[in-house]
Write a structure and sequence with these properties.
The protein is α/β, with parallel strands linked by helices. The protein has helices at 16-19, 28-43, 55-65, 74-93, 107-111, 113-128, 139-142, and strands at residues 9-14, 47-52, 100-105, 132-137.
Length: 153
């Protein structure tokens, strides 16, 4: 797949409340539905980037499943949940034979011109290769939970 114009690019921002059930567990049906829709868009020649939340909810789910009682910061919960969140995306895309690439970003990464250019280059490289970039704020190192993942769109 060659690099396409911005007109052929779609950014989908999906919040934690959409990706999780009321009890906080990840809703795999939503991940599967989004992956199916993205696969259809890709067949139509669109490049798709996903901006995701739900790392904290995934972290809480992981601790609950492992029966670990821990009073953890939101940043630590996001770190604990990162693997579960990325796995949910990977599993949802697997039936469509679509690979994903995780991008953990902070505002500091975006504010640094060299880092921003590198990030943009890697995202474009992923898109050119038919890979779906999955972007999440790196809450573990961000220091402050800014909650503005729409910023990355």
């Amino acid at each position: 797949m060659s690099t396409q114009t911005v007109e052929n690019r779609i950014v989908i921002k999906v919040g934690g409340d959409t990706l999780a059930h009321v009890d906080g567990t990840l809703n795999t049906e939503v991940f599967v539905s989004i992956a199916r829709q993205v696969a259809i868009l890709r067949l139509q020649g669109k490049q798709v980037v996903i901006i995701t939340s739900a790392g904290i909810k995934a972290g809480l789910q992981t601790l609950k499943l492992l029966d670990i009682e821990l009073s953890a910061s939101k940043q630590l919960l996001a770190g604990i949940g990162a693997e579960r969140l990325l796995s949910a995306w990977a599993e949802a895309f697997r039936p469509h034979r679509v690979a994903i690439a995780q991008f953990w970003l902070t505002h500091a990464n975006w504010d640094n011109e060299t880092e921003r250019q590198s990030i943009e280059s890697r995202i474009l490289e992923a898109l050119a290769g038919g890979i779906v970039p999955v972007i999440n704020e790196n809450d573990v190192v961000a220091g402050v939970m800014v909650g503005g993942k729409g910023f990355y769109a």
